[in-house]
Design brief:
Elements (H helix, E strand, L loop, with lengths): L1 E4 L3 E6 L4 E7 L20 E2 L10 E4 L2 E4 L12 E5 L3 E7 L2 H6 L4 E10 L2 E10 L5 E3 L1 E3 L2 E3 L8 E7 L4 E4 L13 E4 L4 E5 L7 E4 L6 E5 L5 E6 L4 E5 L8 E8 L18 E3 L4 E9 L5
Antiparallel strand pairs: 1-2, 2-3, 4-12, 5-6, 7-8, 8-9, 9-10, 10-24, 11-23, 12-22, 13-22, 14-17, 14-19, 15-16, 18-21, 19-20, 20-24, 21-22
């Protein structure tokens, strides 16, 4: 476990999955879900080379059919520590025989974390190491404790950088996206969160509608915020489980739509990378309550 610490926050990252496992403030308060398997056994996995599920658990690429479980293999693979300074740490995963059997592209995936003040910048780099164009998706899945969690069912609020409403897709058959679009009304910029908000499972907010999502307590006091430039954002908490956490997930990709049987390169929100090129992206987690 690698640790970065300053006067406001301490974060911990493990080499397995290069996964962020803890965010605590100077008083020891934990903000990141601590992976109780009774609800969900992860903290903040990185999703690669797919986000979500592929139809029937398989995809077609380069003339073959491959099996792939939800969210890909990176979250369950050991990374190598590449570098560490006082406020930044980087890990890497290089394609190998095992990854090639599951996904027919050669790549280098680097995941970094930079700590400054009350903000954690999560950074991704995907390098094409193949002799052909490669295709991939990548996404975040951080889970945060609700600021309010009690018997009254109150969970606080989301505050968005857009007003009045947003459009979203739901999870449908075989954990893939239904293409029927829905509309979520907002109270100004805010969505009240309670025990039933995620009975629908996941809000898949597509088409680059959002650039930030803040989590507020029941008095609408700032708790934490995420800032990103991703085309898709997933909002999720385990349905019907009364879980103590919520996920705010910037995605460069999403699950297949129902009945999709095309090539991997034809998947919705897939990223293409030419030989020798590198894809870079990042998002920020700001712990507002640690100001």
């Amino acid at each position: 476990m690698e640790q970065l610490k300053n006067e406001k926050l301490t974060i911990k990252v493990k080499e397995h999955g290069a996964e962020l496992c803890s965010i605590t403030d100077s008083k020891g308060k934990e903000y990141l879900w601590q992976a109780d398997p009774a609800f969900w056994k992860r903290h903040s996995p990185v999703l690669f080379p797919i986000v979500g599920s592929v139809w029937n658990g398989e995809f077609k690429a380069e003339g073959k059919t491959y099996k792939m479980s939800q969210h890909g293999f990176a979250r369950d693979t050991d990374f190598t520590l590449v570098s560490k300074t006082e406020n930044e740490v980087w890990f890497a995963l290089d394609s190998n025989n095992a990854t090639i059997e599951a996904y027919p592209y050669r790549f280098r995936l680097e995941i970094g974390y930079h700590l400054e003040g009350n903000t954690i910048k999560v950074m991704w780099k995907v390098e094409n190491k193949d002799n052909k164009e490669i295709f991939f998706q990548i996404g975040a899945h951080p889970a945060f404790y609700y600021p309010n969690y009690g018997e009254d069912g109150e969970r606080g609020y989301f505050r968005f950088d857009i007003k009045d409403s947003f459009r979203y897709l739901k999870i449908g058959e075989k954990a893939c996206a239904s293409l029927v679009e829905h509309k979520q009304e907002l109270d100004g910029h805010d969505l009240h969160l309670d025990i039933h908000t995620f009975d629908i499972d996941t809000f898949i907010v597509h088409d680059s509608q959002l650039k930030s999502v803040a989590l507020l307590d029941k008095n609408k006091s700032p708790y934490l915020s995420l800032y990103f430039d991703a085309p898709v954002v997933g909002l999720w908490s385990p349905p019907t489980k009364n879980a103590p956490f919520v996920c705010i997930e910037p995605w460069y990709g999403r699950c297949d739509h129902e009945n999709f049987t095309g090539e991997f390169r034809e998947r919705d929100n897939v990223n293409a990378l030419k030989q020798g090129e590198t894809f870079s992206a990042s998002y920020d987690i700001r712990i507002d309550a640690a100001e």
